[in-house]
Amino acid sequence: TASLGHGTDALIDQWLGFGSVLAHGGKFDESQTAFEHGIAMARDLYGENSVRLAHALNEFGNMLSDKSDFAGAERTLRQALEIRRRSMGPTARDTLIDEGNLLTAIETDGRLAQALPQRTQLIETATHAAQMHPSDLAYFYVHAGTDLRDLGRFDDAESMLRKAIAVFDASLGPDSAQSAGTQQELGSTLMLLGRYRDAKVPIEKALEITQREGGPSALKTADRRILLGQLLAREHRRDDALALIEAAAKAYEHANASDWGRPRALAALSEAQPDAGQPDPPHPTPHTTPAQSPNLPPPRPEHRLGEPTGPQPAANGTNFVRAWD
Predict the structure, then answer these.
(1) Interaxial angle between packed helices 238-249 and 261-272, expressed in degrees from 0 to 180 and rounded to the nearest 10
(2) CA 87 → CA 50, 80, 93, distances in Å?
(3) What is residue 78's three-state secondary structure?
(4) Contact (CB, 8 A) for 55 and 318
(5) Nearest one of 216, 205, 195, 194 to 168, comparing CA atoms
């Protein structure tokens, strides 16, 4: 029986992992089927109030958000959160992270005014509970910062994003991927204010970090080069902007069709093209991450903020902050 239980538990993880892989490739219907198999097995093996079931539901809810099934995502993530609250308490680390993932789905659905007060309360609760690693809490700051920005509260947004960068730098080091993603969000925010000289500093910092990483970060590097190109265009450096954006856009030629960066790269390329007789647009195009746009998978910051990775499967049912980088 013990052997069968262990094997079944491993099979649950395989179904969840398979679902995540399929979702990353944009095969959301197949992914949903895989997740449903894993959830059914977790429910049969552990019951309705287990953290393993909560973990499976959390993973499934995040995938539904990536699929743009926001009603299904919210319903599923609320189920996961309620199980966590009953089994672990309202201030346990995993409970707080599940609540953050629920708010991310609401934010992705564009309901920022609804999410922001809850996000602010979550930050206060998590701070007082002192159960989370500082970098986990910093992700909450980033989401609050992008909410504030998109609601037009730019000074508050800048302050919150700089706070997140300070925490990431102190807890993970100044060259972490998390810091880079937040630097990118800060640069986008400053561009919206027309503060191009100030915006260039965090954008170039984010680009510097990802260029050193190389490999899997190639699309993140391209995305940040495109953002820098957009900034150069706003400074009327059209030739430099177009060269940078054209080179960066090539990175998406063989990217997955569902990759959220592809339409942004094409839009930036079109915007940078010379248009005789037309003045430069007065405001920059806001940089949105998958957690803000109608889910083109993955930061915000996600990143979902770079490319969000989502929570990673864990054999013990532990969740990770849904992040963009």
Answers:
(1) 150
(2) 7, 11, 12
(3) helix
(4) yes
(5) 205
Which positions ≥6 away from 142 have C-beta within 8 Å?
Answer: 160, 161, 164, 181, 182, 185, 299, 300, 301, 303, 305, 324
Are 181 and 299 in contact by the 8 Å Cβ rule? The answer is: yes
pLDDT of 42-82, one tens digit each? 999 999 999 999 999 999 999 999 999 999 999 999 999 99
CA distance 209 to 139: 18
Compute the distance between CA of residue 77 and CA of residue 65 in angstroms, rounded to an integer: 10
Q: C-alpha 238: how far from its chain's center? A: 30
The pair of three-digit structure tokens given for residue 138, joined into one six-digit string: 């910093």
- CA–CA gap between residue 95 and residue 125 (Å, rounded): 11
The CA distance from 59 to 80, in Å, is 9
Widest pairwise Cα distance in the chain? 77
pLDDT digits (tens, 9 = 90+) for 188-223: 999 999 999 999 999 999 999 988 876 556 788 888
Tell me which residue of 181, 87, 91 sits closest to 138, measured CA to CA.
181
Residue 318 has pLDDT above 70, yes or no: no
**Which among 161, 87, 98, 86 has a CA at the least distance from the CA of 126?**
98
Tokens (6 digits) for 47: 């019951």
> Is 9 within 8 Å of 44 (Cβ atoms)?
no
How far, in Å, CA of 67 to CA of 75, rounded? Answer: 14
Residue length, the chain?
Answer: 325
Amino acid letter, residue 57: L
Question: In terms of DSSP H, where are the helices of the chain?
Answer: 2-24, 28-46, 51-66, 70-88, 93-108, 112-129, 134-150, 154-172, 177-192, 196-213, 218-234, 238-249, 261-272
